[in-house]
Design a protein that fits this description.
heterodimer; A: 556 residues; alpha/beta; Rossmann fold; FAD/NAD(P)-binding domain; Alpha-Beta Plaits; 4 domains; five-stranded parallel beta sheet; 29 strands; B: 721 residues; seven-stranded mixed beta sheet; 33 strands
Chain lengths: 556, 721
């Protein structure tokens, strides 16, 4: 490399970088005969502008910057540098509290002595490669749908891959949403229809992404579209086939609490509103085939593989509720009246298994109900993190329970009530005013009354300082969220990193919380940590901007 | 003054209607005698022919309609099939492809509202289907073509507020290729990130987070930065705003396609507040003040983290024991405090107390109510603080007294009700967030509403958290509600994506369902301007008139029709749901056996959908119901009700979304609710029984409630006889 056109900058930043360390590196480099420059407040407008002018004047071609690293300053300043001086090869190195000055110095020396000029030309060329303007969104929950819509409205082609039969994700299963107690599917349904009808969105369902190959801006993705055994283009969603089907199976969508036929439409507001056959249970009696007026049933449907070229990938794969089966002390699974909060949502929903009647598994009205918070969350044995949504969700469900049973006795056992969101605290106060009892203290166990079959909750009330037993009609476990498997084979040098909990790991916690360690792969929603609908929708729009900004970078 | 006549909207040319009655497999045909409906329809005035079809929505069905348009020369299409909420778009697109105006299609809902709910009464269901078709034909005869509004877009954005969320929004928009004007009221960019020291999420100095952003935004050729500036006035609508910005030197008018509001927050001021008398004591700091104290202490150490030393107060004395008080200004009832939780103060305290305990060897106690940390890594930070020796106590602060250089604190421990006493060197008030001082001013300029807590109100708390009720104005960061830096940055990009949805287009296409006001008959009463949920009706001065005339800003109109609902003269009207067409539907619906019928006006978004839902669930109700679809219950004018009773209607029902929040048009339902008692009185005066007129709220999932309501109305109708 032409050493006269290479330059090394060390950022001196009192209060952030250890000044001693910066000067230490400078000394080591000087010992190897390499000159470098220490700049104070490198990222500030005044200093950086002067620096840029100097680079342009002296026509530097390569730059090594030791400072905050790419994550903090580099993304912003790097773009500016590229814009001001397009041929410049910039390398960033992070000088953190834990980094070793010898190691950084060694990297700089290797860079200075060994990089030939041709390599900087290669990097330059690669960067100006054309990016495919199409985006793949994986997951058709509320976040994925919002991101797809915002990208499509921004003029990009979007492929939306959803693994279940219908769009909507977990939000579609909720009865009401906090804090306004809006009907969940009523506000979500039209949004899903909008996604399905948008000219820029191609919807693949039920489908899964299998393999990702290629490079940022040019990913090659293999998608498998699973068979529905019903021709999407012919089916009109009339539901005739389900009338004649002789096989009754538990509805997966209603969490196994409602019977459906082996051929059925997932739920009344499903998008796309088409039948599908659960093939494991089908006996091929062909009654549906005979009754279908449009010959839509095709029992020999097969999986179809598709190859897609996309520029960027948005992961909106969501999370799944923690399964309380492993939480033995609460008896979930063998005490029928112990249910999860998601099952409670289906129970109070008008389209749910009981038609919206709040009853116990025995069929009696549920009058005393207890909600137990932090099941699986904030717990060293299961998940250390807080799932964030469950406090407000339980408060909402407590109010819903009172709407069904005006004279019901509702108790919430909590650790901390974390209603930190717009209008959430007000909802908490409303629940207290309505007579919902909040007891500080997570119950130790639940046992079943042998005669009444009621769950009996054993708890310790920390405020009163005494133990207690509470027999209830229904015990609702506010389960947290745990990461879901995406099942994608990343045929790259590395896949997106996951953190210690199994959620996707952000590139940087504050500035780049929607980006993965892979260029061009983004996250939103619960796949990178538990969050509520509002935050997921906000992030979905945020991702849409980041993706478009990434795909547009070629203009510089 | 002579009564002026309203200019009648004349449908153009000769009306030639083609009717298509759908079998929908057996869904309709098994209950309704489709052939009889076809025959009945073919004899209706204006109808050229009527056909039946197995599935109108399928490709062949649509192709047949398109063929008939060119071959038979029909110019209106009525499809008697399912709910318009399901397939109206499908048929609009089909006739558009066939060369007709898409608003020349009407659907008679003979599935959800007829065959699916009257499956035991085939005869009456067929009768009802015939009448539903006749109502649709009547509406079509009065239809006229609506043009989609084409609005050119000024491809520039104005971002108000230069904090992290504003900077992020400007940065992303500039990167996407759009010119951006960034307006900041202070003399420098950066907002709160410049004032504070360290970010709790990644432990990095906030300066390192914000300086690169400021630099990148400042150097981008697409950005124009106006510091020490304020937005004074706003004119225009989505795609075409004119923003008047002023600073000391000059006043600028910037044209923009959309506006992003990112005005942030202020810290709650505890001093002078009667609830916190101890806030003005010596050595009582707020969290932002402690932030600068820690920064000063660190800078004296030249940035070295690992060296330990004691914390020195601004007067140089050493601080060994510190108490934090949480929820200062938050989660309190009463006028002087806020009811909401400020979301970030717990984390700020955790961060600061950990630093004090780890790097300065302080003994720290935190008095809190609930510790609220929500992110996946926050719980670990909480645990780390506890490991570092910070003591967290659920307690209520009682009294704080000055005791020489130290402070004496009495608190009540909530756990087991114990009394606590502490002597500390310093106390820190963890203050919450309040809306930025100038948001009230800005609210009046931009005409966007505030929520109860004083922050800007989003269009929907779940699905539209970044939009406001004004199209083209978006929210980013803590101006919408308390947020930390990470969330502010995320919403900053989010708002940029929303802006990109507008700015990526040369022109916007808005549908033609808008209000129009006839200047001849407008008497200038201003009712419509007051009731319009979006404030897009303005009163304009006309020379010879005293009161002026109302005028709709068409591009910003959402077509709810509240103005037409309140208009006393019928000057205000909504295209697509105009008065003549609704009157014609009323007349046809009540032509036969009016006394045995329930005439219902259902809003498109909730009640009509609720009736559809009753259909989907096959919930039977008496076939005496005739539904007229309107976009919003607020569109229903008292003249419709009077007309219905004049024609002898048995019962009249208006159904809308549940107040206050469910309305698709903010407050259309409330507008009608206000008028409801007046209409009742008027009915009584005219000699009709006001109890025969009902107002009900039905949401889109309340099929069973809808069924019950109709059953009750019908049984009342029979008993009343």
């Amino acid at each position: 490399m032409d050493r006269s056109s290479a330059r090394i900058v060390l950022c001196e930043c009192p209060g952030h970088h250890d000044t001693k360390k910066v000067h230490g590196i400078r000394g080591i480099l000087a010992g190897h005969g390499i000159d470098c420059q220490c700049i104070r407040d490198f990222c500030s407008l005044e200093v950086f502008s002067r620096f840029v002018e100097e680079i342009k004047l002296k026509k530097y071609s390569a730059l090594f910057i030791v400072g905050c690293g790419f994550e903090l300053a580099g993304d912003y300043l790097g773009k500016t540098l590229k814009m001001e001086s397009p041929g410049l090869d910039v390398t960033w190195e992070n000088l953190g509290a834990s980094s070793d000055d010898l190691e950084i110095a060694a990297k700089i020396i290797a860079w200075y002595n060994a990089v030939p000029i041709s390599k900087s030309e290669v990097t330059e060329k690669k960067h100006f490669d054309k990016k495919v303007p199409r985006v793949l969104v994986i997951g058709g929950g509320v976040g994925g749908c919002q991101a797809a819509l915002d990208l499509a409205e921004g003029g990009h082609e979007v492929v939306l891959v959803e693994k279940t039969l219908s769009l909507g994700g977990n939000m579609a299963k909720l009865d009401k949403t906090f804090p306004t107690l809006d009907c969940s599917i009523c506000i979500l349904g039209p949004r899903l229809v909008e996604v399905a009808n948008h000219g820029n969105i191609e919807l693949l369902t039920p489908a899964e992404v299998k393999v990702v190959r290629g490079s940022p801006g040019n990913y090659n993705v293999r998608v498998v579209v699973w068979p529905r055994f019903v021709d999407m283009t012919k089916c009109s969603g009339c539901g005739k086939c389900a009338d004649v089907c002789p096989i009754v199976i538990p509805s997966e969508w209603n969490l196994g609490m409602k019977p459906v036929k082996a051929i059925h439409i997932n739920f009344e507001q499903a998008v796309p509103l088409r039948s599908a056959i659960t093939k494991e249970f089908c006996v091929e009696c062909r009654l549906c085939e005979r009754v279908c007026e449009r010959d839509a049933v095709c029992l020999d449907d097969r999986p179809v593989e598709q190859e897609l070229e996309v520029g960027a990938i948005v992961m909106a794969t969501g999370a799944k509720p923690f399964s309380p089966v492993s939480y033995g002390a609460y008896g979930y699974g063998y005490i029928p009246a112990v249910i999860t909060n998601m099952e409670f949502e289906r129970l109070v929903c008008a389209t749910g298994p009981t038609g919206g009647r709040l009853i116990t598994p025995e069929g009696a009205p549920a009058r005393t109900i207890a909600f137990i918070q932090c099941v699986g969350s904030r717990n060293e044995r299961f998940n250390r993190y807080c799932s964030g949504y469950c406090c407000t969700a339980s408060i909402k469900e407590a109010i819903l329970a009172l709407e069904h049973e005006a004279y019901g006795h509702i108790t919430v056992f909590y650790n901390d009530i974390r209603t930190a969101g717009k209008g959430f605290e007000e909802l908490y106060q409303r629940a207290i005013e309505k007579g919902v009892r909040f007891i500080k203290g997570i119950p130790s166990r639940i046992e079943e009354d042998p005669y009444t079959k009621q769950p009996i909750i054993h708890y310790y009330d920390m405020n009163e300082g005494k133990r207690g037993k509470l027999p209830v009609d229904l015990a609702v476990l506010a389960v947290g969220l745990v990461p879901d498997e995406s099942g994608i084979d990343w045929e790259l040098s590395t896949g997106p990193e996951v953190d210690e909990h199994g959620f996707y790991k952000e590139r940087e916690k504050t500035l780049h919380s929607l980006k993965s360690n892979l260029e061009g792969v983004f996250f939103l929603g619960t796949c990178h940590g538990p969050r509520d609908i509002t935050q997921t929708v906000g992030e979905a729009s945020g991702v849409a901007a980041e993706v478009q900004s990434f795909l547009n970078e070629k203009e510089f | 003054m002579a009564k002026r006549k309203k200019r009648k909207l004349e449908p153009p040319g000769e009306v030639k209607i083609g009717v298509y009655v759908c079998h929908c497999g057996h869904n309709i045909a098994s209950v309704v005698d489709v052939e009889r409906v076809r025959e009945y329809a073919s004899r209706l005035p204006g109808v050229v022919f009527a056909r039946t079809n197995m599935f109108c929505c399928a490709e062949p069905g649509q192709a047949e309609i398109q063929e008939d348009i060119s071959r038979e020369g029909i110019n209106r299409v009525l499809v008697a099939a399912c709910s318009p909420r399901l397939h109206e778009t499908t048929f609009r697109n089909a006739v558009k492809a066939g060369g007709l105006n898409p608003h020349f299609v009407e659907m008679a809902n003979i599935r959800e509202h007829c065959s699916w709910v009257h499956w035991q009464e085939r005869e009456r269901a067929t009768e009802k289907a015939c009448e539903l078709v006749a109502m649709g034909v009547a509406k079509l005869r009065n239809a006229f073509p609506l043009e989609d509004r084409r609005v050119p877009v000024t491809r520039r954005a104005v971002v108000i507020g230069g904090g992290v969320s504003g900077l992020k929004a400007a940065f992303e928009l500039a990167n996407m290729g759009h010119p951006v004007t960034l307006v900041e009221k202070e003399s420098q960019l950066g907002g709160k990130a410049v004032e504070l020291w360290q970010n709790f999420d990644n432990g990095q100095p906030l300066r390192c987070l914000v300086e690169p952003m400021i630099t990148a935004v400042s150097l981008n050729p697409r950005t124009r930065i106006l510091t020490s500036s304020k937005v004074l006035n706003l004119k225009g609508f989505i795609g075409n705003f004119e923003v008047e910005i002023r600073n000391e030197k000059q006043s600028i008018v910037e044209k923009a396609g959309c506006i992003i509001v990112a005005t942030g927050y202020d810290f709650f001021p505890p001093r002078g507040n009667p609830r916190y008398p101890y806030a003005s004591l010596k050595r009582v700091l707020t969290t932002p003040e402690l932030e600068s104290l820690i920064r000063d202490n660190f800078e004296q150490r030249d940035g070295a983290y690992n060296e330990s030393g004691s914390l020195r107060y601004s007067d140089g004395s050493k601080i060994k024991t510190v108490a934090f008080a949480q929820c200062v200004g938050s989660r309190e009832s009463g006028d002087s405090c806020n009811r909401y939780c400020s979301r970030v103060c717990c984390l700020v305290t955790i961060k600061q107390s950990t630093i004090l305990a780890k790097h300065f060897g302080c003994n720290v106690v935190v008095f809190h109510r609930d510790i609220r940390v929500l992110q996946k890594w926050h719980e670990d930070m909480y645990q780390e603080a506890r490991r570092a020796g910070v003591v967290f106590i659920r307690a209520q602060l009682g009294d704080v007294r000055q005791d020489g250089d130290s402070l004496f604190i009495i608190a009540k421990n909530e756990v087991e009700n114990g009394r606590l006493e502490y002597h500390v060197d310093m106390m820190v008030l963890s203050v919450g967030m309040v809306p930025a001082r100038d948001s009230l001013e800005l609210k009046d300029v931009l005409k966007i509403p505030l929520s109860d807590d004083g922050f800007f109100l989003e269009s929907h708390p779940k699905l539209h958290p970044l939009e406001t009720s004004m199209d083209g104005i978006f929210l980013a960061g803590a101006c919408q509600g308390p947020k930390d830096f990470r969330e502010s940055i995320v919403t900053g990009s989010g708002a940029a994506a929303k802006a990109q949805c507008i700015l990526s287009k040369e022109e916007l296409l808005l549908d033609g369902l808008v209000a129009s006001i006839d200047t001849e008959t407008c008497i200038g009463c201003g009712l419509c301007a007051r009731e319009c949920p979006y404030g897009v009706i303005e009163m304009v001065k006309v020379e010879e008139e005293v009161k002026g005339k109302a005028r709709v800003i068409t591009a910003a109109c959402k077509g709810c029709g509240v103005c037409a609902g309140v208009c006393p003269t019928g000057a205000a009207d909504t295209l697509g749901f105009h008065e003549e067409s609704i009157m014609a539907q009323i007349e046809v619906a009540l032509e036969k056996n009016a006394g045995e019928k329930i005439l219902a006006f259902c809003c498109n978004w909730c009640s009509y959908a609720g009736a559809d839902f009753a259909g989907v669930s096959r919930l039977e109700y008496p076939p005496s119901l005739r539904i007229i679809r309107v976009m919003c219950s607020g569109r229903v004018n008292e003249r419709f009700i009077l007309k219905a009773f004049e024609l002898g209607a048995g019962r009249v029902l208006v159904a809308g979304c549940h107040p206050p929040g469910d309305c698709h048009y903010i407050s259309g339902n409330i507008s009608f609710k206000k008028r409801y008692p007046k209409i009742k009185k008027k009915l009584e005066k005219k000699g009709y029984n006001p109890d025969h007129f009902t107002l009900a709220w039905i949401s889109a999932t309340e099929g069973p409630q809808f069924q019950k309501l109709i059953q009750e109305l019908d049984s009342g109708l029979r008993k009343g006889k």
